[in-house]
Amino acid sequence: MNYLTEIKKLNAGLVLLYLVLAVMPLKAVARQDVRQIHHNEATDRKFDYYFYAALNAKALGKYDEAIDFFQHCYALDSTNANVMVELGTFYSVLQEKDRALDFFRKAVHYDNSNYYYNMMLAGLCKELELKQDVLGIYSSLLKLYPDRSELYFELSNAYADNGEQQKAIDALNELEKSTGMSEMLSLNKFRLYSLMDKKEKAFEEIQQFIDKNPGDPRYLILMGDLYMEDNQDQKALQYYEQVKGIDPDYPELILSMVNYYEKTNNKPAAQAELQKAITGSFMDVETKLQLLTRYLGILQQNRQELKQANTLFESLFEQHPNNRQLNMIYGNVLMLQNDKEGAMEQFEIYTKDNPGDPAGYEQMIRIALPDEDLEKIKEVTTEALKHLPKEPQFYFYLGAAHYQQKNYKEALRVFEEGLKNAVMLSPAMESDFHGQIGDLNYFLGNKDIAFGCYEKALKLNPQNLPVLNNYSYYLSLEKRDLNKAEQMSGITIKADPMNPTYLDTYGWVLFEQGSYLMAKIYIEKAMEYSKENPSAEVYEHYGDVLFKTGEREKAIEQWKKAKELGRDSKKLNKKIKTRKL
């Protein structure tokens, strides 16, 4: 939210200063007044500088800097509601909820008519279950903003959360006086009356719509569905029968009847109802697809076997052989059934007829990724790029597949081509491309180019954790800029303190700095969090650290474990043979 338009409040301390000046000698007052004016101008300039610096840092994602600048602003003017809201928002995200609450309360105190500040305070109070505070805020806001309908709903919900259902209904009735009847209002009142076990009053809320629109099947269906939810199946059926008299082919009626048959354990009737609708000729294909999609949702909600929908798809394919949307939907259903081969076939049919739609290619990649079918990923992405040369995700997956196969030169070519041709959806995505290009250049021995790519990546996204990790690790291997490496690696473990790769990198940077005891702590943590997928590199690092801390025998054990895990280098073999680092 942008609060730049908010007017800064005058420092309350000036009032006290004014009273003091009133009893001072005239000449002293004049001298003091001049100094005070200069002081206020200087303070305002400082405030403006820090405030705009804070907003700029926030926009760039430099949140630590932003908080520091806002704290400077708060020190200069402790009555500025705008600054308090900014700080409150930061502390809320940092899960320091009590501190955030204090800032929001102060902001509302100094700018009590501000709608958005009050709503933010109410939201946090709701999160902290301060129910009376929430009621107080919405009640006060309604006096200031009686035309804002959302406040009546918020106040009603707050009363309901506090167990005061009648007051919740009264709040909605007040809104109804000015806006008239609406489905949303009546449905909310229906819910509240139901909670109060006033069933007749609840159903009267919906009946008034039926009385007003007797020929409209929507409200009859709604009433029937609500009776179904209330386990009054026979009453529900009565309303469904009324709809049949108006329009027996009404799509919503078919789905409601399916629900009814499902609930009354008449599954053959439910299946027959759907088959009749889907195989019949009285509905267009789009409506049939909507019915089928919703039916699939019902099957999932009830945890029923999705395979029973397959015959319905077969019927639709017979009726509409050229409708490729069916292939896309059926492919997704087969994926849910874990039929990867069948799903892949459906997506291939879809993309053949819709080569300019990325969705089909993306679904095929989703199938291939978990199985690490790199050849399939290369095949799909190569075909996708023939038709969609500006889509960055396909360059990324194609480059990553070559990367995994250690085809570094080809991977580099793909990522560079993507950077040149694709339309990047965000700075973060472009940053990832530069990061991959940096990694590949490092593997190919172009170390200075690699470090330059990392700098570009971090300029676009200073919080790109994989880039921060790799950049710091490769700097440590080169024994270059170790302080910078330590700072970058420190960001990664602060953001993801249980990531074994990041912990190992940080430990290794400390090792290269000569902080062996601290390095040992972090690398031991890395080993603890990577037990299920042990890393030979981490074991070798741990051995090196143990050697430096005087635990030679343990060090040799770790080196041997690294070799057992597949680490085979002249350097490691020499350490094991000579028993020295």
Structure report:
- The model is unreliable at 1-39 (pLDDT under 50).
- The protein has 581 residues and is mostly helical.
- Among the domains are: 1-128, Serine Threonine Protein Phosphatase 5, Tetratricopeptide repeat (Alpha Horseshoe); 129-180.
- The protein is built from 32 helices and no strands.
- It starts with 12 loop residues before the first helix and ends with a helix.
- The protein has helices at 13-22, 26-59, 63-76, 81-93, 97-110, 115-127, 131-144, 149-161, 165-179, 183-195, 199-212, 217-229, 233-246, 251-263, 267-279, 285-301, 310-319, 324-336, 340-353, 358-368, 374-387, 392-404, 408-421, 427-443, 447-460, 465-478, 482-495, 500-513, 516-529, 536-548, 552-564, 570-578.
- Helix 3 (63-76) packs antiparallel against helix 4 (81-93), helix 5 runs antiparallel to helix 6 (115-127) and helix 21 (374-387) runs antiparallel to helix 22 (392-404).
